[in-house]
Structure formats: C-alpha cells, structure tokens
C-alpha cells in the first residue's frame, strides 16, 4: 500500500510517500480502508518533535481517519466488512491507504456524514466535547467564549455549544473565519486581532461576565481572559505555545478556575461517552463537520503546512484513494 513515512523529526520534507506492507489484523483489531485522514496541529508537533511530542521511527502520521472496514479480527462480531466507520487513533497511522486499529478506536459513521467529515471527528470533536462538557461542565443558558473558533476544534465546540443551549461568543482572526462562525450560528463574532476585543463586548452579550472560555492560545490570551470571567467562571486551556504571566487575584476575586486538558488524558469511559454523544449529534444533524481543504496523500506536506497557517476556517484532510465522498 501507499503510505506516508517519517524517519526523523523535521520540517514537512520528512513526510515521504512510500510503498509499505499492508497491515494484517489480529484478534481485537480492524483494518480500515482509509478514504480520508484528518490533519491536526498535533500531527505537526509529533513530526517536528516540538511541544514535548515525539515518535518511534519510522512511523506513519495521522491519528484520525474515516473509511470502510476491509478486514476484521475473527473475534469481532458486531461489525462487518464494508461498514462505514471513523477512527479515534490507530496502531499504524491514518495517512495511508489502510490503517490498523484496535476495536475500541473504531466507531460507526452515520450515513449522512461524508468520509472527509468523518476524518474530522477523532481529535477536533472529541477535544471540543471533553473541554466543554466533561471539563467545563457547561450548563444550558451559560455564555461561552471560544477564543480562536474557526479551526477544527473551535468549529466543533461552537456546534456542540449551540446544541447544548449555550450563548456563544466566537473569535477569529480573518474575515473568512468570522464569516464561517456567523454561518455556524455564533451569537456574537469578534476579531481577536483587535486590541482590547474582550473589553469591547456589549453588555447585552457579556452580561455579568463570561461563564466559560475555551482557550486555544493561552500563552497570548490567558491574561486577557481572566478579567472577562463571571463569578465561578472557568477557562479551559486547549492550546498554548509558550509561557504566560497572569494575576492570580483575578481568579480569587471570582472563585474562577483555570483547567488544563489534553485529549490523551481521557479515560476509556470518557472517550466512549464522547463518541456516543457525537454519533447522536451527527445523526440528528446537530453537528456538521466543516472541511476547509482536501489534499491528496502525496500532498500531505502541504496539508501539514495548511493546518498551521493563520486564518483557519475549518478542517484539513488528505484522501489516500482520491477525493471520494459517500
């Protein structure tokens, strides 16, 4: 099969398309014919060896993917060859024509969701659910600020928040990003490149403060987030690329909380809960993943560049078998 292989940390030029053996299934495993693989910032960190990420070489990148079951371990009874599925992680990597997964990593893909959309579920939507529902314990009627909302996790969080009955303030740094957030139903859209953008929020939007802030770039924004919080407000740190200085008294005055999270810390029960929620939301069309760009497998390097560019407006995927939908 064709697969992307990485033999050392480095820039995107270390992503090499090569011919490698198709994985063979064992008990408890599923081989998926990958129709689309999701590309997320974490994939670039692993490739580059940055932000405390590394890998065992050589490896095939990609945690998320969607496709059809090609082969099953002989002990698996509840799935069938040909079933449409998505995966939340894999044994062998998803930037390939086939990926080997543990059964717990494989989930049914609703018929109304394309393979490209299915490839956006594993990291972005599970992260968004974990942040908003499992960590922030969001309640209907609360106000959430999604600080950096136009990327994969941000658009997922916006849709989950609206489905959960929250008032949503969403920020983006580009015109196209802000247009997307408006289209997705954000109650108020702001430009986070504008100086003092949080202090300029109208009172009818911010009320007595923001209950929840989902923070994608804490090293830049965390110090500005804290004054905007309501009493008992929560900041969930989803992303950060450096250090930051804050005034702890701003937390003390409001009994506010900063919570860090990483998807890989999720328990099996938390992951199972998230996937059950996602299947229901997708089937009811409450959730509708946004695909920004689709690249061929041979252009995985371009996909890694695209996912890190400013002005995000949805998810990035690669298609090992061509640009197929269905």
Automatic annotation (TrEMBL):
Which chain positions lie within coiled-coil regions?
none
Which CDD domains does the record match to this protein?
zeta_crystallin
Record keyword Protease present: no
Q: What is its main location?
A: cytoplasm
The Enoyl reductase (ER) domain, residue ranges: 10-318
Q: Which UniProt keywords apply?
A: Acetylation, Cytoplasm, NADP, RNA-binding
Leader sequence range is none
Superkingdom of this protein's organism: Bacteria
Q: Show the InterPro entries listed in the entry.
A: ADH-like_C, ADH-like_N, ER, GroES-like_sf, NAD(P)-bd_dom_sf, Quin_OxRdtase/zeta-crystal_CS, Zinc-ADH_QOR/CCCR
Give its localization.
Cytoplasm
Complexes and interactors: Homotetramer.
Its protein name is NADPH:quinone reductase
The species is Zooshikella harenae
């Amino acid at each position: 099969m064709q697969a992307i292989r990485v033999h050392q940390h480095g820039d995107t030029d270390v992503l090499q398309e090569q011919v490698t053996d198709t994985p063979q299934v064992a008990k408890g495993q599923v081989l998926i014919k990958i129709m689309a693989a999701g590309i997320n910032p974490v994939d670039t960190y692993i490739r580059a060896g940055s932000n405390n990420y590394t890998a065992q070489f050589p490896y095939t990148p990609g945690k998320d993917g969607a496709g059809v079951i090609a082969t099953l371990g002989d002990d698996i009874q509840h799935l069938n060859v040909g079933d449409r599925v998505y995966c939340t992680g894999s044994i062998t990597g998803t930037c390939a024509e086939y990926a080997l997964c543990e059964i717990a990593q494989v989930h049914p893909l609703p018929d109304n969701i394309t393979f490209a959309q299915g490839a956006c579920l594993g990291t972005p939507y599970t992260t968004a659910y974990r942040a908003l529902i499992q960590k922030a314990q969001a309640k209907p009627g609360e106000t959430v600020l999604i600080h950096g909302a136009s990327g994969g996790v941000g658009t997922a969080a916006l849709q989950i928040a609206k489905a959960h009955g929250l008032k949503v303030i969403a920020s983006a740094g580009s015109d196209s990003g802000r247009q997307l957030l408006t289209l997705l139903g954000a109650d108020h859209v702001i430009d986070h490149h504008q100086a003092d953008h949080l202090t300029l929020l109208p009172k009818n939007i911010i009320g007595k403060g923001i209950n929840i802030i989902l923070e994608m770039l804490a090293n830049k924004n965390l110090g500005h987030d804290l004054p905007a919080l309501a009493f008992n407000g929560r900041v969930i740190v989803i992303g950060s690329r450096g250090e930051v200085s804050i005034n702890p008294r701003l937390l003390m005055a409001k009994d506010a909380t900063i919570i860090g999270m990483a998807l890989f810390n999720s328990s099996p029960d938390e992951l199972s809960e998230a996937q059950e929620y996602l299947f229901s939301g997708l089937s009811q069309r409450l959730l509708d993943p946004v695909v920004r760009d689709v690249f061929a497998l041979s252009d995985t390097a371009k996909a890694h560049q695209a996912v890190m560019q400013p002005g995000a407006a949805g998810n990035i995927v690669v298609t090992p078998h061509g640009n197929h939908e269905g």
